[in-house]
Amino acid sequence: MPELEVASDTTSELSRDDRPAYWREQVSANQGGARVNFGNWPKFHGALKVQRLAGYQLGDFQNVQFESTAISYERTRAEIEADGDRSARLLIPRRGALGIEQNGSRVLLKRGRLGVVDWGERMVLSHEDDVRGWILNVPTSSLRLSPKGPPHLELDAHDPLLGSVLALAEQLSRHSDAMTSSQFLQISTHWAGLLAAALDERRAPEATKFAAISRDARMHIQRYSDDPRLTVKAVAAHLGVSRRQLERAMQDSGMSPHSCLLATRTERAVQRLTDPRYTGRTIADVAYDSGFVSLSTFNNACRDKYGASPGQLRHQSLQSV
Question: Given a cut of 60, is residue 321 above it in pLDDT?
Answer without folding.
Answer: no
